[in-house]
Amino acid sequence: MDNILQKIQFIEEVENNFNIYPLTRARDLINEDLRLHTYNSNNISLELQLLIALRFFAKASYQTETGDLHGVSQASVGRIVLKVARALASRLPQFVYWPENFRGFKQNFYNIRAFPGVVGCIDCTHIKIKNPDGRRPLLYYCRKGFYSLNVQVICDSNTRIMDIVTRWSGSVHDSRIFNNSRIKEDFDVPIPFNRKQGILLGDIGYACTQYMLTPLLQPRTAAELRYNAAHKGTRVVIEHFFGRWKNMFKALRRNLGTKLSTAKIIIAATAILYNIRLERDNNFEDDSSESDSDNDDQPIRPNPRNE
């Protein structure tokens, strides 16, 4: 009886975190992929596989806890999480993309603090990973004192993810990630051939260009002060996004504890699930204090033994 009650509570926890629409949408999306790779010996239903993976993403439950709850081995839980995450991540272009028409997006940003021409806000956040070992593990050791992936995100005024880059190690600066990104190549295309005509708002870690606007370091005039206030008040949406994303998927706040390649897939999968939920429900918790900017902390001396 206790185990049955635990399972009921488990399902309720996942449903409360995602609501019914994202659960059914995610199931429909990956249903075929999961059927192609069933665990015949374990006879784990497709619905249970999805719930196990979502529990791992959303509740920050370690694989042993999730496995114990369902009588599934930790090894099977690990395979299920990877399989579900991979099936979701394969659909990234379907849910994380730039809009065709920016007019409405610019107006929505303008409505926040009267900052004209903005099409997106950009920043990076550190996602903790375990020591990746390999030839150069210190590449993943970030200034905050842990191993991480430095993940770049661009969001719209509603905190919807329009672009995400998950491949960079934690020691890499935000500006380098952007300078080597496909999105920068798109913005560098001369007008009128540039499909992404508009402005990105970034912090002082980025170079100020015709399409990337950053705060003024020493504002003196009233106009400069107004510019900085409007910039800060508009760009705060990316901080809201990071807070919402990590509250929805608490696994992103702790050490994912998976292989490096799996961690990248999980991050992409949670980006899709976030946008799916945002389609129907914009009322969920955020943590506006969330900020992993390369410019908000002093560097920390790396300690290779810190894992």
Automatic annotation (TrEMBL):
Keyword terms of this UniProt record: Cytoplasm, Hydrolase, Metal-binding, Nuclease, Nucleus
Compartments where found: Cytoplasm; Nucleus
Acidic residues biased stretches: 284-297
Domain spans labelled DDE Tnp4: 122-275
CC annotations in GO: cytoplasm; nucleus
GO molecular function, one term: hydrolase activity
Cofactor: a divalent metal cation
Pfam family, one: DDE_Tnp_4
Annotated region described as Disordered, given as residue ranges: 284-307
Function: Transposase-derived protein that may have nuclease activity. Does not have transposase activity.
Family note: Belongs to the HARBI1 family.
Annotated protein name in UniProt: Putative nuclease HARBI1
